[in-house]
């Protein structure tokens, strides 16, 4: 299921089916899912703790490390997809709307090349 051919709906259906097969839906409250996602995000951040920006870019050269990071990224994404299912949020629409809001808040001509 590569990114170039997999739809967001297919991913949402895959995580929905996974949870349904285990009868986990009762535990998928917005509170639990958002907290679980935060925990997984912390596990992802742990891979980059105490290293500088250049070193963080070098993880692509270590297949084992990159695989561990990919696992944590997938965990975060699965929680997000489950949260979107639980709340009935269309992630594609939410992302597009947020990009529009951010473009207004951070116009390219004013913020190009700046992190502040």
Describe the structure.
By secondary structure, this protein is mostly helical. The chain has six helices and no strands. It has helices at 8-21, 30-46, 53-57, 63-87, 91-105, 108-111. It is globular.
- CATH class, please? Mainly Alpha
- The CATH H-level superfamily is MazG-like
Uncertain spans, ≥5 residues at pLDDT below 50? none
Q: What name does the CATH topology carry?
A: Helix Hairpins
Question: Which features characterize this protein?
Answer:
Helix Hairpins, 116 residues, globular, mainly alpha, 6 helices, single chain
Walk me through the topology.
Elements: H1 8-21, H2 30-46, H3 53-57, H4 63-87, H5 91-105, H6 108-111
Short summary:
It contains 6 helices and no strands. It has helices at 8-21, 30-46, 53-57, 63-87, 91-105, 108-111.
């Amino acid at each position: 299921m590569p990114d170039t051919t997999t739809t967001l709906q297919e991913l949402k259906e895959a995580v929905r089916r996974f949870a349904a097969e285990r009868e986990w839906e009762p535990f998928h409250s917005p509170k639990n899912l958002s907290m679980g996602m935060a925990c997984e995000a912390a596990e992802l951040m742990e891979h980059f703790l105490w290293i500088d920006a250049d070193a963080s870019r070098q993880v692509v050269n270590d297949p084992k490390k990159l695989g561990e990071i990919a696992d944590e990224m997938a965990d975060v994404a699965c929680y997000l997809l489950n949260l979107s299912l639980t709340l009935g949020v269309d992630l594609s629409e939410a992302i597009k709307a947020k990009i529009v809001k951010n473009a207004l808040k951070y116009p390219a001509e004013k913020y190009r090349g700046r992190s502040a």
